[in-house]
Write a structure and sequence with these properties.
There is one protein chain. The protein has about 210 residues and is an alpha+beta fold. Helix content is about 30%, strand content about 20%. It is globular.
Length: about 210
């Protein structure tokens, strides 16, 4: 016998398979030291997202163009390398240059602006992080996770709205400059994470 697919509990409509995947993703992320990441930390962090990124990915670049706004809203962004086309490609080399740079943050920003970086060699984590992304089922970039929950689902057919697990309960529209596209697995940052003061937990301020 063979079984393929997700197992659901019909009584409470819980996806048991996805719940187990989330546990495994959380463990894999917890085992990965932050020293191997490129982190853009919020001064007053409220949420942390982990993003598998490709330096040449158009939507990854759009996401990064709003990195200061995410940080201002209390969202810390942790980048992991995921050059989609694999080893031996130009994107893979660029990822190595970013992770081997003395100032990884500056190198990431420059690379995503299309600037050339100085070639550098080090014991970079690109291969390890690429393998980790594959193990987690990352198929498109940016592949975004929060607490082990995948926010991007490239295999999904359609979605009228998506919710950010662990973020304020706010529905994200699917038309007109949408932040997320479940169908393509891409992140559209033209209106990404439009956070309103009323959507934050009681006692908090969106201006902080």
């Amino acid at each position: 016998f063979a079984f393929t697919g997700d197992l659901f509990s019909m009584a409470d409509r819980v996806n048991i398979t996805e719940a187990r995947r989330k546990e495994l993703r959380q463990k894999m992320l917890a085992d990965l030291p932050e020293s191997s990441m490129v982190i853009f930390a919020a001064a007053r962090p409220r949420h942390t997202i982990t993003v598998f990124t490709d330096v040449d990915c158009v939507y990854c670049r759009k996401l990064h163009s709003q990195i200061a706004e995410y940080n201002r809203l209390g969202i810390t962004v942790r980048y992991l390398a995921f050059p989609r086309n694999g080893p031996g490609t130009e994107s893979w080399t660029k990822a190595q240059q970013v992770w081997c740079a003395t100032d990884r943050q500056a190198a990431m920003t420059r690379a995503k602006l299309g600037e050339k970086l100085v070639a550098a060699r080090c014991d970079d984590p690109v291969a390890r992080e690429f393998s980790l992304g594959q193990a987690m089922g990352i198929e498109g970039t940016p592949g975004i996770l929060t607490s082990g929950q995948r926010l991007i689902r490239p295999h999904a057919q359609r979605s009228s709205s998506l919710r950010l697990s662990g973020f304020p309960s706010q529905s994200l529209p699917s038309a007109g400059g949408v932040p997320f596209s479940a169908m393509t697995g891409h992140f559209f940052a033209s209106s990404a994470l439009t956070c309103r003061k009323s959507s934050w937990p009681a006692g908090s301020s969106s201006s902080e």
